[in-house]
Amino acid sequence: MLHLTILATAVPHTVTWSPAVGIVMIICNVIAIALGKMTMATPSAQPELMMPEYFGGMGFPALLATTSLGHIIGFGAILGLANMGIL
């Protein structure tokens, strides 16, 4: 029972959502999409998006992969910037 009490007190402080947090996440996603567009062998793989011209001709799998990576990068960036006191 003592271990559960210690574990409950070990929850880190997380930053609350603000426009600055949203901007950091958007920037990280744009960077990940740009990296994915430059490095993927077939970024236009099927199935296509409804309006692929808005995403540079990327297909759904490429968009899903790059935005997933962007959220992972953004998660780390937001936690790091919050820990440094910037956010």
TrEMBL record:
Its main location: membrane. It is a multi-pass membrane protein. Keywords: Membrane, Photosynthesis, Photosystem I, Thylakoid, Transmembrane, Transmembrane helix. Pfam families: PSI_PSAK. The keyword Membrane applies. The keyword Endoplasmic reticulum does not apply. Gene3D superfamilies: Photosystem I PsaK, reaction centre. The chain crosses the membrane at residues 20-39, 60-82. It is found in: Cellular thylakoid membrane; Membrane. Belongs to the PsaG/PsaK family. This is Photosystem I reaction center subunit PsaK. It comes from Roseofilum casamattae BLCC-M143.
